[in-house]
Fold this sequence. Notes:
Blueprint: H1 3-21, H2 23-26, H3 30-35, H4 42-53, H5 57-69, H6 71-98, H7 105-111, H8 114-146, H9 151-169, H10 171-200, H11 202-206, H12 217-220, H13 226-239, H14 244-252, H15 256-287, H16 297-304, H17 308-358, H18 366-401, H19 407-429, H20 435-455, H21 463-482
Amino acid sequence: MSAMGIGLIIFIILFFVLGVGMYFLVQGSGKRYIIAGKSLPFFLVGSMLLAQSLDANATMGNAAGVYGAGWWAGFQFPLGLALCLLLTGAVYAKPLNRMNLITLPDFYYRRYNWLTEVLVGLLMCFSFAILVAGNFAGSAWIVANVFNMNYVTALIIISLFIFIYTVSGGLYSCAATDIVQIYPALIGFVGCFFYLLADYGWSHFSAAIPDNFVDFSGLYSIKNGALLNWAGILALAIGDVVALDFMERVFAAKTPETAQKSCYYGAAGTLIAGVVCSYIGLMGLTFFPEISDPRQILPTIAQAHVPFIFGLLVLGGIIGAGASTADGGILGVSSVLGRNILQRNILRPLARKRIAQENAGGEKTADEKEVARRMSDRRLLIVSRIMAVPVVVFAIYLAIVKPEPGILLVLAFDVVFAGCLVPLTLGIYWKKANTPGALAAVIVGSVVRLYLFYNIPEELAGLDTLVAPIASLLVMVPVSLMTQKSYPPKHEMITFIPDDMDVLSGKY
Length: 508
């Protein structure tokens, strides 16, 4: 086995052991499992947001896009994600952290109703399950190439590793592994770029770069893909505000100010890593004038053109980038399925019925209510861990039949962007937002996006991403205004609530 293979095995085992070791911090609590008890400091939250942002698209996909179609075709990924974190910090982090939410669909339940929560939750779960599959595939592809292994075998191994450490410690495991993954990766990406620059000089690379690859035509010329580039940037910058993995980390910050500053920290790190990966993609035009698979640019340069330590950190960083996004996706999807679909709408009504029967002879004491609350918290932990199993099975299956989800992943996230962003934003900042308006926005925005996917002319591709959320906004405002009397807004429900786990109260 090569030295590179041994180094990667050590790296994978290290973050696996760290992740599993976080099991003891969960302490039997669903709230600690999902959002680390809302106790994390700035450095941990910022590092986790950075790790979630730097996925396989923002690194390997970024370099491949730049190599194939120019700067904006690849740099759109880290740029969009960095802008998303800036927007989240400026507009959403403080009010959402202050609400003591556990999952993002909790907001839609508290501000609107259970049906809005279920619709939003299912849309988010579907899109993030596809994201998990894509990052499983990206990590497995690297492992298969380095170890000369069958892709499916590598996929199953890496997926099981990520699954085991994620369900062991939940967000604590994500935090511990993200620290190990992201900073060595940053050192590797930046070190690789500066080594190549110092060793060859920029003039060595610039001769092979077409002029239209590095100008701004990719932002204003439709012929050079401006519509698609802007669609990608804005879909990530605005649409990823409703990303389950980002919001898990925002909710886990110990104060609203910590949540906000962490978003800015993650944005800065994303831009730094994104710029160097884009430049490495341009350098690939010199090293590999013709290559069958542009995804090989970053891994091949790491193995053949830079010192061993930088190559190891780059390859480990790509695997870690996929793993960090996948573990956040697994945790986010399984938590929503467990809490917002199964526990709230199936298990909790049964529990309330039983409690009402038990209370027929008299009210429970404060101690008995506290016991019931803790049982609910424990049950949330159990169902969230159980729901991680079908999520991972589905992701593995999808990664086998469609290892490059491509347009399917874009469509899934565009549907969430189209249907879920407007009700979230107006729910925070517009007191007249109500349930009928939110439901209309979710349904119309999602349907419009699906319709345009199949019917928009090819020369206008990209507008389908941008038009649908506008339709969502244009529907929600009038519907909310017309139904104020019959469905009064619940804007008071977005204020601070001390404990969102109270199973005995029907208020939330």
